[in-house]
Amino acid sequence: MQKLINGIAILSGVVSLTVVGSGVFIYLQKDAIIDKVKDSIKEQVLGGVTDALPSAMPEMPKVTGGIVPPSF
Description:
Blueprint: H1 2-28, H2 30-56
């Protein structure tokens, strides 16, 4: 019975150290993680806008008219 309790205690310690280690790693890498997420969001948003622009923009005219006189 004592061996089972010791095994559970060791397993509990390993899990606790893993959680703390993961937290420290994420805290130290938070700036890099935030930059990666921002870059990913920018690519997704700009990619959608860029794909939609050609169909949304009318064709440019080949010839334009003269100047419009000012209306005073």
